[in-house]
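[job 4471] stage=fold_predict status=RUNNING
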Amino acid sequence: MPDHLRLAVVPTEGRDEFAVEIHINGVEMTAKGAGLGMDPFDVLVPTNQFAADDPATIPVARCECGVYGCGMTDVSITRADGEVRWQWLKERPIRTPSVFDAHQYDAEVQRAAGDFAWETPVRTAGRLVRTRADVRAALAANDLRIDWTDSHEGPFQVCLAYRHSLQILLRFEWAGRTPEALADHVIETLRDTPPTRWRAAWHASDRAVPGPPPFAGPRGSPGSSRRPRGTPSPRAGGRPRPRWRSRRRGRPDRCRPSGPT
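[job 4471] inference complete, writing structure tokens
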């Protein structure tokens, strides 16, 4: 008799943090594995990794501290003869494979990917931005990808990764917008506005990186609010704000545990 799969997105102890629970035959597996299910933005958004047609290995659980790498449970997914087979890897909750009827499995992973009832406004805006293929293509043209989205202490934040050596942080004020309206504003900025015109902060995760990304626009010296010579003041009598600025190296604006990229 095939195993039965149910996926559930549940809140965790962190602020606006969630985990994807995996119930097989009524037993929750992530707690029996590494300890905590993956964040839905690691396995359901922008791509539903459970829906792999070709053989694939995906993360399904992380350490209870929230970090994938501190603790890890993976599954290897294969399909054959109307069945989907999971081979548990690393910190295994059970020793035997789980085998599902393909129809029940596919219906459940599609249902979970389309269920947004758990989302907060921040998560809705994040999903709408992350799932836009045109945004991902525009960012990829500059070797950028979205690392995380959040709304820490007010503004909606988008953290971009550049070649695994730099983090680039953009902030967007809610200004009374709905999640959908805010997402439209973020999408327009990331897709249609050249990076040289972004107001952004950059942080080097590697101390050997000498400076900002090559597409950074006019800026003062790192960490300075001084306007480059010849650049008009944005407001009369006001202190100018550089478009690009540096954060102190070794101290990223905010670290958010995430799954493998």
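[job 4471] summary: The helical segments are 40-43, 102-113, 121-130, 133-140, 179-192.
[job 4471] exit 0
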